Amino acid sequence: MSENRGKYFGVCTSYHHSKGCNCPRCPSYPEKGVFMFCAKGSSAKAKQKAGCLCADCEVHGKFGFKGDYFCQP
Q1: Which Pfam families would you find in this protein's record (predicted)?
Q2: Which end of the chain has a smaller Cβ tally under 10 Å, C or N?
């Protein structure tokens, strides 16, 4: 079992959900082409925290997530 899973592992990362994901628009976005860090896990390429859009994300609201900076380790 992989340890590189997001806090909300098990949330479907389908095309439908990925369209509501704020990761690609986030100022702290660490990795082009990767999204839904809340479900997939943090990025090894994480940059310095420069602001977070998680709380305003459609996916975050839809599933009742708690927290922010899911892309950061």
Answers
A1: DUF2769
A2: N
